[in-house]
Amino acid sequence: MKTFLLIIRWVVGLLFIFSGLIKANDPSGLSYKMQEFFEVWGWNFLNDYTLAFALLMNVFEVLAGVAVIIGWRMRLFSWLLLLLIIFFTFLTGYALFSGKIKTCGCFGDCLPLTPAQSFGKDIFLLVMILILFAASKKIKSSVKPFAAVFLLILVTAATSVGQWYVLQHLPIVDCLPYKKGNNILEQMKTPAGAVPDSFSIVFIYKKAGKQIEFDQMHFPADFDSTFEYVDRKDKLVKKGNGLQAKIVDFSLQTLSGNDTTAAVLSQTGPYIMVLAKDMDQVEKWSGGFETIARQAQQKNIPILIVTADADKAVSKLPNTTIVKCDATVLKTAARVTPTYFFMKGAEVLNKISYVDFQKVLDAANNLK
Predict the structure, then answer these.
(1) CB of 203 within 8 A of CB of 227?
(2) How big is the CA angle at 138 (ends 136 and 139), to the nearest 5 degrees?
(3) pLDDT tens-place string over residues 5-20
(4) Helix axes 2-24, 50-70, angle to 10 degrees
(5) Are 312 and 320 in contact (CB under 8 A)?
(6) Structure confidence at residue 86 as a pLDDT band (50, 70, 90)
(7) What CA–CA distance (Å, rounded) separates 201 from 100?
(8) DSSP 253
(9) Hey, which of 8, 64, 70, 89 has its CA 20 to 30 A from 196?
(10) Where are the domains of the chain?
(11) Domain 261-366 architecture
(12) Gap between the Cα atoms of 333 and 58, Å rounded
């Protein structure tokens, strides 16, 4: 029995440590995933707190994983893990059965799981945690109390510092389609063999107090002005195979609204894109940007600001080439505002946070 419980403790502990660390590599990604759930539920008032929730959750997952492995205060941590896995199972179950969330973000962007895979994983964990919960009184700590407390404090501090670092300097492991070495145009291509979902438009009308639904191929024979329009919706007719382009929404527009995506990404020489979702803290980085812009100008290297806050960018950064892009795209491509993309054509040569100014300057000087 002891060996069986030890195996379960190691499996549960390592899964929670892995889950926490892989999300701690990109806490902003977990924050955005939380916002996706809150948007579906109409809880937008919580969006300002999702990053704090993500940071705390990642620390707790790693902390709980270590505590379970060493068997420290199992009565407490078995309760906490049980509550957490019930919550996770609800989320993954909701994503699976509602169809409103494509991925739950359980292992971040580095290891995307389908809702079915995530739900199955959580059911598996739930069973093992229930076993630990039932046997928690029999499990004794494998280390002395002082050593256990010291280890858990160290784990908490290390995970917290690691998350602070990646929030400033970009994820240590970039798993996004805009990572260094990727070609954006290639990532925008639909993979071979992709079968999209098929939808039918369903119209909802009211006549004589009754609500009637029909699609575009089956209009009522007596359809006339007495039919009162209510709504329309898309009905899934046939499920696709889930294959789609890694990047589906990248688009650049000039200030006048013209699409300039192809023109920017087809440049033959090197250029610099500075992705800034907003201009809320432009004063913190505008000085460094001006220095980089002068360096680029001396080498005849184009540099442009890509932002969703174009009007403010024009007023704060005059004499700068500015193009517009959707804020959701920008927060996916650049976890830090701003992030410097060193480009050649559609290929990402390098990707550096503005915080690492010397690295940005060196990368600009190395462009030819």
Answers:
(1) no
(2) 70
(3) 899 999 999 999 999 9
(4) 150
(5) no
(6) very high
(7) 18
(8) B
(9) 89
(10) 2-169, 198-238, 261-366
(11) 3-Layer(aba) Sandwich (3.40)
(12) 22
